[in-house]
Amino acid sequence: AEAGPFLILISARSRESLRRSADGLRIAIGSLKDADLPSISRTLWLGRTHWKHRAAFIVRSIAELDRKLTQFSGEEYDRDAGRPRNDDALTAQPEDDLDRLLKDAAGRSSPGFHAGLRRLCSAPDYLRRLDRASSSRSTGEVGFVDPSHEDLLAIAGSLFEHGFELSADALELLPQARLLPLPSPPFERRY
């Protein structure tokens, strides 16, 4: 099995439904193993409709996913602020967080990697933000360090949380795995 990290995406029609979805997923993963994480990631990305209210988590183990889902749906989540009290989850990031992620990635990456960032999403607003982040890069820099796979997942997760639809090219971030029968809303009978 792949070692990860893996991007876990959940969404719902309302904030309360999103919390219930996180609870349902947390219960469903109780019988799964770390080796199932690639399938969980793929199922939640491809086998679900993506609604307005969204959350994304980057995890390396079922235990970490369980902890983050518990934090998200439980008392440790500050619903008034719209984000976890403990900032180690990606969920509900403020608008400028996406710009910060893009500026950091664009500022230290090669032109080839920058082209990869452009392929994550084709929404005009995203491309404007990416161009703005790239234009702030110092032209005198030498030696680029391309962001890691986890950095790409963080950007993809942030895009998802901000309501952007990820492009077909973003599917390269997904592990090759089978779809799992995970809980879904009653009106959505899919994997």
Structure description:
The chain is mostly helical and 191 residues long. The chain is built from seven helices and four strands. Strands 1-2 form a two-stranded antiparallel ribbon. Strands 3-4 form a two-stranded antiparallel sheet. Helix 1 runs antiparallel to helix 3. Mean pLDDT is 75; it is low at 77-93 and 140-144.
Tertiary shape = globular
Rg over C-alpha atoms, rounded to the nearest angstrom: 17 Å
Q: Measure the end-to-end span.
A: 21 Å
Strand order of the largest sheet: 1-2
Q: How many E strands?
A: 4
Topology as H/E string?
Answer: EHHEHEEHHHH
Report helical residue fraction: 40-55%
Which band does the percent of strand residues land in?
Answer: 5-15%
As residue ranges, the low-confidence spans are 77-93, 140-144
Number of helices, where a helix is a run of at least 4 consecutive DSSP H or I residues: 7
- Average pLDDT, all residues: 75
Give a short account of the largest sheet: 2 strands, antiparallel
Which tags fit this structure?
191 residues
Would you kindly provide a brief summary of this structure?
The protein is mainly alpha-helical. It is built from seven helices and four strands; from the N terminus they run βααβαββαααα.
Give the helices and strands, then pairings:
Elements: E1 6-12, H1 15-28, H2 37-46, E2 53-59, H3 62-73, E3 77-78, E4 83-84, H4 95-107, H5 111-119, H6 124-135, H7 149-161
Antiparallel strand pairs: 1-2, 3-4
Helix pairs in contact: 1-3, 4-6, 4-7
